[in-house]
Batch of 2 targets.
Target 1
Amino acid sequence: MTIYSLDLRGMMDDEQTLKVCVGCGGRCCKSFPGSAFPEDFGKTREEILPQLVWALSTQTWVVDTYKDQRFVRPAYKGESQGFGSSCSGDECVFLRDNGCELKYENRPKECRYLKPHVVAEKFKCNTSFNKQEASVAWSRHDDLISDAEQKVKLAEKRKNWKAVERIAI
Ligand code: SF4
Ligand code: SF4
């Protein structure tokens, strides 16, 4: 993993971006984890479900809601498995001193598309893929969220993490 803070947003090819993000130190990751989209977990529903089960079982990914629609995002630091947790600002569980610990391609879509932008020392970084778009995308696969939650809860109850491992392969 690169040690630049820019790795927070994976824009290593852009020198200007590098300077902006290094100087900033990742305030976006410190205020709210980026929203994940269904395609972050797989191309088809058959691929998405096992990956989602695995992700939720690690407790580093959680289900959140935006305007009554569920979506998935990385957990805040210290946030326990929070099915239906509410949105409040805090630091992303994947943020380390040297940047995001996830490889660029494994980061939530919102993180991959966020564009650093600073005007008159004010941060106006933006992305076209925020939690609103994420919740719309997940609305077509809400049943997968329910299925994944159920499987994780069942595995927890039975203390049968082998089953989660099997389904996640
Ligand atoms: S995208 Fe913006 S807020 Fe995030 S690290 Fe870069 S400059 Fe900072
Ligand atoms: S997943 Fe990585 S890039 Fe996205 S908010 Fe968390 S630390 Fe930042």
Target 2
Amino acid sequence: MLFDSHCHLHFRQFDNDREEIINRLKEADIKVINVGTDFRESEKAVELSKKYPDFIWASVGLHPNDNLKESFSAKGGPASGWRENDRICVGAILCNRPN
Ligand SMILES: [Zn+2]
């Protein structure tokens, strides 16, 4: 088994062939962490992990190069609902954000 720790299978660039890619991943026994880059994309990553719980996990986060307007909070907002999903991790939450 292989594990890809950084994918974006939920991105719209894969809308036309996402299922085909996922089938190839299954056949090759490759598991992945699907990484969100903002709240909306993180929600999509979580949804995909729920659809394929055997081999897709989700990382929620805010990519520092793409998103300086949103901030991460585990106490409220969109991030709070993700706590119910025990299959997620957190990444790129702007800990290294410049002041
Ligand atoms: Zn990435």
